Amino acid sequence: MEKEKPDNTQESYNIGRKKVLTFPAGFLWGAGLSSHQAEGGNTKNDWYFWEKNSRKVKEESGAACDYWNRYEEDHKMAGRMNLNSLRISLEWSRIEPEEGEFDDEAIEHYRKMLIDMKANGLRRVVTLHHYTVPLWFFQRYGWHKKDSVRLFSRYAEKVISELGGEIEIIVTINEPRLVVNRGYLVADRPPGKRNPFLFWKARKNLVEAHKKAYTVMKNIFPDLPVGITQFTNDFDYFGKGRWQNWLTERIENFYNWHFFDEIGDKQDFIGVNYYYGAKVRLGYPFYELATYEKKVTDMGWGMMPEGIYEIIMDAWERYKKPIYILENGIADSEDRYRAEFICGHIRAVHKAVKKGADVRGYFYWSFLDNYEWNAGYSMRFGLVEVDYKTQVRTIRKSALEYAKICRSNELEI
Ligand code: BGC
To answer: Are the C-beta atoms of residues 206 and 173 closer than 8 Å to each other?
Structure first.
């Protein structure tokens, strides 16, 4: 049956018994990677130190996916998979390996990578801080020290004055919530502290660091959208009752929205990373999480696509700013649930678009299998499978489903 192509205002139409959900024109369809997880050979940052010394990490990152050397092959593949954007991060420790000394070669390398992305039809979303900081910053400072604000904005200024023309969207800080919770309360990530006082200081400094970097970057490139992205959960409480609802709301405000609230007008979009809903009860720090869905990913996270709808609507009602889903994905080594996961979440994103939320893009996490922090290489999130011995890449079956959506800007259900 001939399908009727909808105009831009039409959000869904039917082909026979199938319903087709159409996304707004210009919607970004992408996937993500981060420097330490994918590049390989990052030996001058806090995570490398942590891998060697903390005993909280399953294995070392080593060569990762060797994306630093294989980016041309990877960008070509992304283009062939119909992605129109890619999210990467810059490695601060490559750009500023010693305090105040910037490495021109590393900057040139990133310039080539960004130009190559464009040549493959990929819009460039760039994160400045995706968990790792240079070793000198880790040893001399840390986010709990006031100097972190000045040091981060100096790095941001350097990046933007050198590479700003090759970037479409800037994310200053990936998941500040996790940076401080895991680094300053749970202590399973660097700097490995369990100290509520330093936790509060680090929170405050991360907010200030973002704000200062925002101002500095906007002075150079006023039209470049700048924001943060946050790890969000759709929270629910064990048991029902007034105080449980009250508490769940407090937890949600604190975990999902606190940073956005504090940053206020110094953000041009709201970045959402969403993986799972969570049932909570009180515990350390603040609460314990549990999964209650039947389908569980290799990470032990329950699949709960409708949660992304709740998060988007919450973000939209609170901030009325463009929203980008900058991470949503599943560790699924057998590729059993990935296609269902992707389609289910994209369907829920569409529901939010239909309700009026200004969602501008969806980025699957991750483009390639990569180094999953404390869990090492066992967790396979990729649209593309990586054989770490040979570095051979294989596009997963589920990725073909995603490629269809990316090509047509539509989801058939
Ligand atoms: C992080 C990624 C990570 C993913 C899966 C996000 O919290 O930004 O670096 O790989 O979750 O755990």
So the answer is: yes
